[in-house]
Amino acid sequence: MISASDLTPAELAALLHFHADAGVDWLLEEQPVDRFAEFEAMRAARQGARAAQPRTEAPAPAPRSQPERRQAARPAASPAAAPPPRAAPAIPDEQAVEQARFAAESARSLSELKTAIEAFNGCNLKNSARSTIFASGTPEGRIMVIGPMPSADDDREGAPFAGRAGQLLDRMLAAIGLQRDAILLANVIPWRPPGNRAPSPPEIEICRPFIERQIALAEPKAILLLGNFTARHFFGSIETIHGLRGQWREISILGRTVPAIASLHPQELLTAPINKRLAWSDLLAFKNYIDAEILG
Hints:
This protein is of the alpha/beta class.
């Protein structure tokens, strides 16, 4: 087995990235440690220390009077037991959704919404995530690209579409004349689920007001939805991305309709490069709509 001391800094960094992408959150020591034996040894040492302490003879008690003997015979009142510490009450899902909706509706700008999401503590996903991932780029281009939930790279860097998937997305956008800093990039879920698991239905509903408010404040004229989860979330369908991609649809966001088209997520293209031809077809449809309806 190769020891960590034999690896270069670059090799160590690549190894850590590999483990993080695989969902590893804890690293163990190379040699096993018997914690039970350690505890027994500590307990034996404490008992030996107490046995070695010299004992002092207690002085003989003075004779008591009759009233004192009667008082001593009464059982001593036991002190009131301290109440056990209470755990922090969990916020019911319905209440958390209402709090998220109120926080989102109270924001009058994207910067205010970012502050509101960072201060929100009603979603369990925030407890295990390193970063709160908010939209990056600019809304001035009136073009929005939305992904599912943050990846391990997103969580580490604190921005959407980071790492290899983000680099591939940059090349995909450049192929149709778009740059990352000229559009708005966002995720449906602002916190990475532990181990890259899928968010639960209550977690999705808690996060829904935040992404809808981002869209409402950005006022995009066209949205590109990336990935199976994202397409299902906005189209309200249980079909896979292969059945939902490449079709322009109107999605309703807080009383306003926005045209959107779905395609495969860059991570899916890294896993199955053969699907790049499908993504390219979707990107061309996205470009044609932008040229005709936004730039034209």
